[in-house]
Amino acid sequence: MQSKLSDIDLIKQTLAGNQAAYADLVKRHQRFVFTLAMRFTKSRVDAEEVAQDCFIKAYRSLESFKQESKFSTWLYSIVYTTAMTSLRKKRVDTSSIDDEETYIQVVHISSGFDTNNVENKSRSFYLNQAIEQLTADDATIITLFYKGEQSLEEIAQTLGIEANSVKVKLFRARQRLKEKLERNLKHEVKELI
């Protein structure tokens, strides 16, 4: 079955002409690519466009993937550059880059207990809400590290910076995320009282 094959196996099959193998590769990574694009663009429509562009670029450049890093690291670097290019174009095309509509991706972990499920959704909601309030750079590093489960070296490769810089940026992003969570939850507690 295709889905049990590694990314490298799917890439080899794609390069051999098997289009279904690339479709499986897209299915495997599309959710996280979209989430990462959403962190940058803050717009569902723009994130979908960036994600689609990324998979097209990845397909066209698949032969250049040297397997020196994981496929996901290579793909996320394409997401990063594509999203940055998209944002630069948007800044030129529009007078305001503020987007009043904020879409929050909630990843829920299914549970046998309804209370646990509600609690997990609530945690995810507040966490995603706080991440949305971070700068694009902070949100990206937090997303790559925690949701993408990438190492500092892989994030450095994706962003084109040194691993030590990623470590410092991650530390600072965590601090800012903590501040946002404390501020947001403080308001929530006041509303409940």
Structure description:
The chain is mainly alpha-helical and 193 residues long. The protein folds into two domains: 1-97, Rna Polymerase Sigma Factor, Chain: A; 111-193, Arc Repressor Mutant, subunit A (Orthogonal Bundle), CATH 1.10.10.10. Helices cover 73% and strands 0% of the residues. α5 (114-132) packs across α8 and α6 crosses α8.
CATH-assigned fold name of the largest domain: Rna Polymerase Sigma Factor, Chain: A
> Which structural class matches the secondary elements?
mainly alpha
In helices, the fraction of residues equals over 70%
> How many structurally independent domains?
2
What CATH architecture label of the largest domain applies? Orthogonal Bundle
Main β-sheet, in a few words?
A: none
Q: What's the shape? A: globular
Order of helices and strands: HHHHHHHH
Number of helices: 8
Beta-strand portion reads under 5%
CATH homologous superfamily title of the largest domain: RNA polymerase sigma factor, region 2, helix turn helix motif
CATH class annotation of the largest domain:
Mainly Alpha
Distance N to C terminus? 54 Å
Rg, rounded, reads 18 Å
Calculate the mean pLDDT score and round it.
78
| Model regions low in confidence, pLDDT < 50 over at least 5 residues | 92-120
Count all strands and give the number: 0
